[in-house]
From TrEMBL:
Keywords: ATP-binding, Coenzyme A biosynthesis, Cytoplasm, Kinase, Nucleotide-binding, Transferase. GO terms for molecular function: ATP binding; dephospho-CoA kinase activity. SUPFAM superfamilies: P-loop containing nucleoside triphosphate hydrolases (SSF52540). Its EC number is 2.7.1.24. This is Dephospho-CoA kinase. The gene is coaE. It is an enzyme of class 2 (transferase). GO terms for cellular component: cytoplasm.
Amino acid sequence: MEAPVKPWILGLTGGIGSGKSAAAQHFIDLGVHTVDADHAARWVVEPGRPALAQIVEHFGDGVLQADGQLDRAALRARIFQSPEERRWLEALLHPLIGQEIISNLARAESPYAILVSPLLVESGQHQLTQRVLVVDAPEQLQLQRTMQRDQAPEEQVQAILKAQASREERLRHADDVLLNDRDLKWLQTEVERLHHFYLTLRGGQS
């Protein structure tokens, strides 16, 4: 018997409002093991996990809610004003999030697995992957979708767009680009097309 082929890892990313989550959901519906970096990031700071104790030791009890959960808004406010504090937090969390992602991907039983991360390129998480799919959308469309979805003012969405990797930077790392400028049905058809293609790949490269 041949040893089972270890699943290769596809990195899936896209800017805010690009439709990355809808694409990821359709891959999940097709049976692909998917790990969300945002979920891993939330999980490593759950109460009882070592990272939360270190954060409280460093920043004080002001970053905790009454129930012992991390108060994200308070922590964000603290690191927003101080690049040093932000770097301290990233140095603590990035390796832990990386370990969480790796151990979760290792449980995959599908021919390939997906790491969904909005910061795939910026965080260096693309190094965990053998191939990168970028869900792309024109910036004007990203703005409209996000303002509708989050009921957020344009300035706020513009600020988030600026903080994320530039579209050019993301596309430079892309092996595949899914231009999501139509409706959900079309997006799902494109995901299915890519899925069939990915099933033919060994190790993520043709």
